[in-house]
C-alpha cells in the first residue's frame, strides 16, 4: 500500500507552501535515485556469489545437457547447511559509500529499520560477502551475512520472519500468510540463481555440458549456458551441478565484454545433514529495538510484469511497465512520471546538482534526449521526459528501443 494513502471520501488537507516545497524536494530526490536504484535493484535480482573450485577435475560418467537439466529439475534437497561466498562486480563508480546508501534508502521501509531485509540484503549488490545458510524444508531457513565485527541474520520459521542487525541491535519482524508460507524457499543460494536462468531457456540459448569440477569437496558437472542473440551484455553462465543430488553448487555469470565475472556465487562448504532445530529459533536480544512489519501475503507477485502480454500497471507512481523484445535482449520500460536526471544547472538540482548526471552518457534520437547509466551487465536509459529503459543489453539496444517505442 502506498504511504499516506487517503480515503476517496476524506476531506482533503489544504496544500501549503511548505508541503509544495517538500513535494518538490521528493521529486528531485527521486530523479537522483532512479539511475542508481534501477541498476542496483536489477543487480540484486541477479543474485549471489561464488566459491573457488577445488583443483582437479573428477572423472564422472558422460551425461547430455538434457540429462543434466533433468537432474537439476528433479533435485529435491530439503536439508542443508553451509557457507556461500558472494562476489558481485558490476563496475559501478566508486561513490565513497554513497551508492550503497542510496540503494539502501531506496528500498528502506518507512520506519527505517536497519534490520529490514529489503534494506540489508541490498548490500549483496556489490563487493564480496560471506554467508552462512541453513534450510530444513520449506518452512525453516536461515541466512547470516557476516560483516566486520557484526552479523546480520534473517530467520524464517513457520509463519515468522525475523531480521536482526547486531551492529545496531535492531530487530525486524513480520509474518507470512498461508499463501506466502507455501512459496517460501531456501535463501540466497546458487540454486535460486539457477532456477531463474533455466526459466529463460528458449531457442535463443545454447546449453551444453562443459566438463566436470570439484566444488566445496563435491563432484560436479559444469553446465554452460550461452546466449545466441547479439545485443545482450551477457557472455555466458556457468553452473556447477552436484553429481549426486543435482543441486547447483556454484553460479558464475561473465559479461560479453570479458574480464572478471559479474556475479560469482557458490558454496565453499556444504553439508546435507539435518540442521539442529535450534538453528531456526530466534528471540529478540534484551534492549533491542523491535519493528513490526506488515504481513507478507504471498500475492505480491500479482503486480509483476506480464511478460506474455507485455504490459502491467504499476500504480500511481508509474504509468505502466512494458517488456520489449524476447529472450536475452528483453528490455523493461516504464514511465516515472517525472523529468529525467537533472543537469548541474537544473533549478531543482541544488547542492547535489549534476553529480549523478556526471556518471552517465548523454544520448539523443527520435525520442529526444536522455542519459545512459552503464554497468558491466545491466544498463539503463533515462530520457529527459522521465521514461526508463533497462536491461542486460548494450547502450545501442536501449537507444534503438526508445526510438521505436
Tally of helical segments: 7
Top-tier CATH class of the largest domain: Mainly Beta
Distance between the ends: 30 Å
The SSE order reads HHEHHEEEEEHHEEEEEEEEEEEEEH
Could you name the CATH topology of the largest domain?
Answer: outer membrane lipoprotein receptor (LolB), chain A
CATH architectural type of the largest domain: Clam
Major beta sheet, specifics? Answer: 12 strands, mixed
Roughly what fraction of the amino acids lie in strands? Answer: 25-35%
- Indicate the mean pLDDT: 76
Number of strands: 19
Helicity level: 10-25%
Q: Determine the CATH superfamily of the largest domain.
A: Lipoprotein localisation LolA/LolB/LppX
Query: Which of globular, elongated, flat, extended, rod-shaped describes the shape?
Result: globular
Alpha-beta classification: alpha+beta
User: Low-confidence parts lasting 5 or more residues at pLDDT below 50?
Assistant: 1-15, 19-55, 95-110, 300-319, 349-353
Number of domain modules: 2
Radius of gyration in whole Å, from Cα? 22 Å
> Taking strands numbered 1, 2, ... along the chain, how are they ordered across the largest sheet?
7-8-9-10-11-1-2-3-4-5-6-12
Amino acid at each position: 500500500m502506498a504511504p499516506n494513502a487517503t480515503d476517496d471520501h476524506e476531506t482533503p488537507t489544504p496544500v501549503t507552501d511548505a508541503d509544495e516545497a517538500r513535494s518538490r524536494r521528493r521529486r528531485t530526490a527521486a530523479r537522483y535515485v532512479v539511475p542508481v536504484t534501477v541498476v542496483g535493484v536489477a543487480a540484486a535480482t541477479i543474485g549471489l556469489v561464488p566459491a573457488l573450485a577445488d583443483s582437479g577435475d573428477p572423472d564422472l560418467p558422460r551425461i547430455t545437457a538434457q540429462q543434466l537439466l533433468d537432474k537439476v529439475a528433479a533435485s529435491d534437497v530439503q536439508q542443508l547447511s553451509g557457507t556461500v561466498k558472494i562476489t558481485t562486480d558490476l563496475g559501478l563508480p566508486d561513490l565513497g559509500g554513497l551508492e550503497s546508501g542510496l540503494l539502501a534508502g531506496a528500498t528502506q521501509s518507512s520506519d527505517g529499520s536497519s534490520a529490514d531485509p529489503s534494506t540489508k540484503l541490498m548490500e549483496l549488490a556489490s563487493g564480496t560477502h560471506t554467508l552462512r545458510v541453513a534450510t530444513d524444508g520449506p518452512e525453516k531457513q536461515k541466512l547470516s551475512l557476516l560483516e566486520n565485527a557484526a552479523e546480520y541474520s534473517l530467520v524464517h520459521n513457520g509463519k515468522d520472519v525475523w531480521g536482526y542487525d547486531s551492529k545496531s541491535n535492531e530487530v525486524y519482524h513480520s509474518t507470512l500468510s498461508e499463501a506466502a508460507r507455501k512459496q517460501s524457499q531456501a535463501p540466497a543460494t546458487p540454486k535460486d540463481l539457477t532456477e531463474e536462468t533455466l526459466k529463460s531457456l528458449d531457442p535463443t540459448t545454447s546449453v551444453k555440458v562443459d566438463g566436470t569440477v570439484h566444488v566445496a569437496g563435491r563432484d560436479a558437472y559444469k553446465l554452460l549456458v550461452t546466449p545466441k542473440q547479439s545485443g545482450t551484455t551477457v557472455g555466458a553462465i556457468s553452473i556447477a551441478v552436484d553429481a549426486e543430488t543435482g543441486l547447483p553448487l556454484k553460479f558464475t555469470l561473465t559479461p560479453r565484454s570479458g574480464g572478471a565475472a559479474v556475479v560469482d556465487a557458490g558454496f565453499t562448504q556444504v553439508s546435507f545433514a539435518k540442521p539442529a532445530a535450534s538453528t531456526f529459533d530466534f528471540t529478540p536480544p534484551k534492549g533491542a529495538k523491535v519493528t513490526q512489519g506488515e504481513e507478507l501475503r504471498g500475492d505480491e507477485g500479482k503486480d509483476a510484469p506480464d511478460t506474455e502480454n507485455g504490459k502491467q500497471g504499476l500504480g500511481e507512481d508509474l504509468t505502466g511497465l512494458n517488456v520489449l523484445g524476447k529472450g536475452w535482449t528483453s528490455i523493461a520500460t516504464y514511465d516515472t512520471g517525472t523529468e529525467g536526471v537533472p543537469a548541474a544547472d537544473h533549478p531543482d538540482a541544488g547542492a547535489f546538482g549534476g553529480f549523478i548526471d556526471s556518471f552517465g552518457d548523454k544520448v539523443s534520437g527520435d525520442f529526444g534526449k536522455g542519459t545512459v547509466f552503464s554497468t558491466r551487465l545491466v544498463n539503463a536509459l533515462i530520457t529527459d521526459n522521465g521514461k526508463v529503459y533497462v536491461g542486460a543489453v548494450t547502450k545501442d539496444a536501449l537507444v534503438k528501443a526508445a526510438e521505436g517505442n
